[in-house]
Amino acid sequence: LNQNVSSFQRKFVGEVKRCEELERILVYLVQEITRANIPLPEGEVSPPAPPPKQVLEMQEQLQKLEVELREVTKNKEKLRKNLLELIEYTHMLRVTKTFVKRNVEFEPTYEEFPSLENDSLLDYNSMQRLGAKLGFVSGLIHQGKVDAFEKMLWRVCKGYTIVTYAELDESLEDPETGEVIKWYVFLISFWGEQIGHKVKKICDCYHCHIYPYPNTVEERKEIQEGLNTRIQDLYTVLHKTEDYLRQVLCKAAESVYSRVIQVKKMKAIYHMLNMCSFDVTNKCLIAEVWCPEADLRDLRRALEEGSRESGATILSFMNTIPTKETPPTLIRTNRFTEGFQNIVDAYGVGSYREVNPALFTIITFPFLFAVMFGDLGHGFVMFLFALLLVINENRPGLNQSQEILRMFFNGRYILLLMGLFSVYTGLIYNDCFSKSLNIFGSRWNVSAMYSSSHTQQEHEKLVLWNDSVVRHSRVLQLDPAIPGVFRGPYPFGIDPIWNLATNRLTFLNSFKMKMSVILGIIHMTFGVTLGIFNHLHFRKKFNIFLVSIPELLFMLCIFGYLIFMIVYKWLVFSAENSREAPSILIEFINMFIFPASGTSGLYPGQEHVQKVLLVVTALSVPVLFLGKPLFLLWLHNGRSCFGVSRSGYTLIRKDSEEEVSLLGNQDIEEGNNQMEDGCREMTCEEFNFGEILMTQVIHSIEYCLGCISNTASYLRLWALSLAHAQLSDVLWAMLMRVGLRVDTTYGVLLLLPVIALFAVLTIFILLIMEGLSAFLHAIRLHWVEFQNKFYVGAGTKFVPFSFSLLSSKFSDGDNVA
Fold first, then answer.
1. What's the pLDDT score for residue 115?
2. Distance of CA 600 to CAs 52, 557, 560, 607, 609, Å?
3. Do the beta carbons of residue 76 and residue 240 sit within 8 Å?
């Protein structure tokens, strides 16, 4: 309500800054507590936001605690750095002791070189000349810098240095960075002050740790004893400092969780208050909010309770105000429906009062998945896994586990229904780990094919088997037209004898392909029908006559008729006259090309019925293309129409051409509220017939072509079902069949690893990979083929202010800071 006011000029900016300062302190405390390996408590109880008086006390306590912690931590780091430097010094003294073995008593006392012009160099001892102004630099250098360091010394000092170095046996911690690395101890001997300055500058450039080098043995011993004493003292002081720091952090860890939650709540409250505006007296806050109508009573009760507990002299009150804005969409869900609603919301949040596809997705989504994943064994394993998650859903560890497991946990009810429906379709396909179950006994009788069981007249008419035919034929075919061979359909699902047949794939492909087409057309027709309810609710009855009904006629006259032919052929033609049955594909093609030669057809009068259907289809296309644009143009010119209620029209999407034409010069809301003249003129000017016509033409072309492509898209039900069955069959043939055919001597020993490998491959390939593939294809069928027929998904999700949306994780607090 105060968009014109900058963020820094709003009323509660100071309180927000105070909360951010408290967040910064709490983040620092959490980091120090985590660094000290102290467990952070995370309780289930959410403490309330503190009143302003307690906020000041909390701020004072946290600031004192921060100052104390920073001071103690600083002293600890200083002591630790000193300790590490002393330890390095002791290692340096120990190693350099073996470098130079010389006694000061025998050192020459010459202070400068004699003149070389008159005297020969041979008159002086070489060591005496070196000892004229001999100096030492000792210290430690990083292992990776030794070679470059030595080359630099040689080039700069022109060989007037002697470098001796050795690697330390143990790794030491760097006092500056804290990294544990390997070090080299070096001793540089040089003569001359200028070279000494160059050596020290080079050591500084390579970040060497330089320590004083003792001149005598006694000085070395004295320094070593002093270092040992100081190291012991530093260890004692450092341990006491760490103990005190841990006590302070443990005490702070007890209340850090509740304080993090309280600060987050305070900051959220002040952020919301900054969005409110003040009245004229600057003493009353005004807020406009969306609230579900069913929760208005709870809202009034909460305002009264808040006013009473705060001791306000004037009670807070609430009024409902009329608005032309589109409300956000609130869909209440529970644990069961939440997963299916998330699938729909991923496509788009529904507009206000739009038909919600999630209700129907609860059944159609797992069913279409099961059509592609139909296997009794695999579905039962998936059902057991989901059932285990459902039983243990109250365990907090599952919801806070790794991302992949948490994803499975959030979709546990979807997995449960997918597994249950897969068991059902597995029974229909009679498929369990690629094997069939002979529950009711096969309805095919092989013995009826033998000639001995028939009369002489039947021998002459029918093609029967005898011993010679059975011996010499590689493939034997059962003829259902022979009496006694086919004794009726299997009670439930596919007859198990098809699992042994060589033409099994031919039969199942024909069955699953037709089943996929039937399911797809029914699914899309249902989506178009749901669009009628949207038009009725939004009072756009003209869309029913000019859009929905032509779409239904176009769909049913072509593809609905295809379903009729499939079902009619199943019902009318039997085994006796199956060879006379025409091909559905040929008949469907002949429907559009009008062949000159008459065909037998499926039924009498088929040609006339098909012509009527084509005429209806041809008439529905121009109505679909031009009906709605012409009607809106006619309505915009001031005509009245049947089935349109202007006075009660509800604004759903602002500034659309359709609404502009509907509103015209009428009122937007019910009642006598008139729009301003300027707004009325603007809406009249915004009507664009060309844009409306192009939009409708594009929609109609997309729908007409989509009916064909979407119907073909549903054939993925057949394709993935075939792929799943074949993968399962290959896995059984390559593993279980090999393990079961081994002789009894070694068969048991081989069967155990074969079963284990079969189980692993079944889970990872058939359950996870194939299941994910079927899941994605089922989502595509719902988003593109089903929801595209009626669901716009252009709304805004209702996200109310709630403390439950605030995360209680400490890591989130770090990110905010």
1. 43
2. 90, 21, 21, 10, 14
3. no
